[in-house]
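Give me structure tokens for this 382-residue protein.
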Amino acid sequence: MNILIAGGDGFCGWPTALHLSARGHDVTILDNLARREWDVELGTQSLTPIADTRTRLARWRQVSGREMPFYQGDMQDYGFVRDVIAAVRPDAVVHYAEQRSAPYSMIDREHAVFTQVNNVVGTLNLLFAIKEAARDAHLIKLGTMGEYGTPNIDIEEGYIRIAHNGREDVVPYPKQPFSFYHLSKVHDSHNIMFACKAWGLRATDLNQGVVYGVVTDETASHAELSNRYDYDQVFGTVLNRFCAQAASGHPLTVYGEGGQTRGFLDIRDTIRCIELAALNPADPGEFRVFNQFTEQFSVLELAARVAAVAPEVGLTAEVIHIPDPRVEKERHYYNAAHTRLIDLGLVPHLLSDALIRDLLESAVQHKERIRPETFMPTVSWR
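Here you go.
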């Protein structure tokens, strides 16, 4: 297949590009490299050293013998987006090109506005470009389980059948997002659903859980192909943060009671889910939703698992509770369906002590790159 990956230099986009290229697909990436600039803004950095984009691409060409064209530009520029779509004429477009951090969107008004304009307008530009220049392309959009919130009923995959006043209908599952970032994803979902209905586009919305892990077969093939390892309080996911805290001798900081429960998945399953969606495209006019995660954990459960594995690599990890900077339930019901990707052939990598040990060892190896001052939350939802 001919696949365009928007956001192909990022945490999910880069390993996805390598994975699909390694399997014989013609992959092109588009990115404005803003994620690297946000490290500078926030005073942090990837725990693992990452090469610049063109060095990465040159190394992949040497390792794999495959070209991966790169277009540098911004999704806010409709002419640029349209021209790339027209030049590539992709069979599938994988859309990662968004500001992906809830805390970043909650820093202040400017960051909230930036997040929503960047994400919503970028997606709208992509929809119009596909309509104009590659109408049969399958849009594979990375959504988030955070769109659903934490309702006191089971979470279905995108849609729910309801009965009201003696009538029934299937409607989009109610959305109760956690942040301005998650709200931007809800707006995306509605815009994409409308474009499919109005223009006959085809799209898959992958409501992804929290991703852990860093390494894939392809990123492990050379140091210059390494992926990001984010651990800070703005972009770092919770398991990565706990491992970096343990490696640096910092307590594992659990927000509030720690009962916040979410869906999680391994980065290797992220890239496999994208592949499965691409190989099994939506029909014209169809907007389908898959819940992309493999297991559910609470924050406290993850902290306990890291603390239990830490002694195996010579570390001692203390778990502490700190005030929750977010407006969220700290104890709640959570049961989300996630069968559609399994039905397509996903064989999950479940969270193991070995994987936690690998994350801890990587954090110890690059301990000098850890900036402990970025662990504690400074962004408040209140």
